[in-house]
Design a protein that fits this description.
alpha+beta, three-stranded antiparallel β-sheet, 42% helix, 17 helices, 424 residues
Length: 424
């Protein structure tokens, strides 16, 4: 209806703006009323003081204690302009928990349980259905106070005491009414132990006249305007002091780059799945780890300069594991592990050429080699997210670098089902 007749969202937005404006105006008016009463009370008081801000709020202003924070804001505003001086007092008292409030209103759980037991007795199952988990607590309290008794054979609970006095509820009422001093320490400790009360700290303020006190607060001028200069009235005005320590308004700027945001999301997911991140801080890689260890033949087109960036200096790597180099060479030339190999002469000078890595799988190859060096094999899960480089033709949608996400799981008896389950 609102959308058709009143123009929809724009009408609702206008109403919301109007409501917020009215609410702000109401708060400003209420603040002015509070200020006037505070200043007039101090002016008319014999000693020029307000002893307790909470008492002043409830008796003089006729407001509830819930509005004390608003009054404190008004007092601090007056104090900042030196109209008043504040003295803070800290008070400690006992407050009721949510369960304590329930017992205050309806009686303790043992009293509630006692009242539910009929004069002729009530079966335990019926009481357990009524009270749930609280039954055990209530029944234990009733037994210790000798209010109830149960026949173990029949499971019927009957009253043992003709009348009861619910001291728990009475003590909670005293605490709420500010008479906690009438409750002995043993009872207080028992209420704490049962989680019915907890210490509460609150603050009130004493108010006295400040060095610039006046019955009416005069609004300070915040800006030196052209009108004030022309009229000369600036000489009679009182200006608000600058606060050079005030923090500037925080601007809503700065955000994660979309690429970094996606990278962070992937990383969080993989870490939550139990994967460990592999070290990927080496952009320069040898052809051995980038190609040969992954059993890519040395005459493969991807190893050509048209697809891969080769380094001029240093053009070759220093070393790699000799034992592993020999095994890789043998598989390339002769095969093994179920493969017949490529049947060509593997050249070490080709494997030593340094390149900008074309994939992070080179890091995976290194990690698998390190994993195999352990004396006792343990299943492992690794992942990496980092930059790789290809000798691509640059255009609007292609660069010579991009990011690659990959992971691996090393374990016994893995199947295609394990891969599908991990990806899902």
């Amino acid at each position: 209806y609102q959308r058709r007749v009143h123009g929809g969202p724009s009408f609702l937005t206008a109403l919301q703006i109007r409501f917020l404006k009215m609410s702000k105006e109401h708060k400003e008016q209420e603040k002015k009323e509070f200020e006037d009463v505070v200043l007039s009370t101090l002016a008319d008081s014999a000693d020029g003081q307000i002893s307790d801000s909470i008492q002043f709020l409830t008796t003089t202003l006729k407001k509830s204690a819930e509005e004390h924070d608003f009054l404190v804001g008004v007092l601090r505003s007056l104090a900042s302009s030196s109209y008043v001086v504040l003295k803070e007092y800290e008070h400690k008292e006992m407050g009721l928990t949510a369960e304590g409030k329930n017992y205050h209103d309806n009686g303790s759980i043992e009293a509630q349980l006692y009242r539910k037991v009929a004069p002729e007795g009530t079966h335990r199952d019926e009481l357990m259905k009524e009270f749930g988990k609280a039954y055990q607590i209530g029944f234990a309290q009733c037994m210790s106070k000798q209010w109830l008794v149960m026949d173990k054979a029949s499971g019927v609970v009957t009253r043992k005491a003709a009348e009861i006095c619910d001291m728990v509820q009475q003590n909670l009422m005293k605490i709420v009414n500010g008479k906690h001093t009438e409750v002995d320490n043993k009872s207080i400790e028992e209420l704490k132990k049962r989680g019915l009360v907890q210490p509460r700290v609150y603050r009130s303020y004493g108010v006295s006249k400040g060095p610039k006190f006046a019955r009416q607060r005069k609004a300070l001028v915040t800006d030196l305007t052209m009108e004030l200069l022309k009229s000369g009235s600036w000489a009679e005005e009182e200006f608000k002091e600058y606060n050079f320590e005030a923090l500037p308004q925080e601007l809503p700027t700065g955000a994660l780059h979309p690429l970094m945001k996606v990278r962070s999301q992937f990383r969080s997911i993989l870490l939550e799945m139990g994967f460990a991140e592999m070290p990927t801080n080496n952009y320069v890689e040898s052809s051995f780890w980038n190609f040969d260890a992954l059993f890519q033949p040395q005459q493969h087109p991807a190893r050509d300069a048209h697809d891969t960036f080769f380094l001029k200096s240093p053009a070759t790597c220093n070393s790699y594991p000799e034992d592993y180099k020999q095994r890789v060479k043998d598989v390339h030339e002769k095969g093994g592990y179920g493969s017949v190999g490529y049947r060509y002469e593997w050249k070490e000078e080709e494997a030593k050429k340094n390149i900008l890595r074309t994939h992070t799988t080179a890091v995976s190859a290194r990690m698998l080699y390190k994993l195999a060096q352990r004396k006792q094999f343990k299943p492992a899960k690794y992942f990496s997210i980092d930059r790789v480089f290809r000798n691509e033709t640059l255009d609007a949608t292609h660069l010579a670098e991009f990011h690659q996400v990959e992971g691996l799981i090393a374990d016994y008896d893995l199947t295609l089902g394990d891969l599908i389950g991990t990806i899902k």
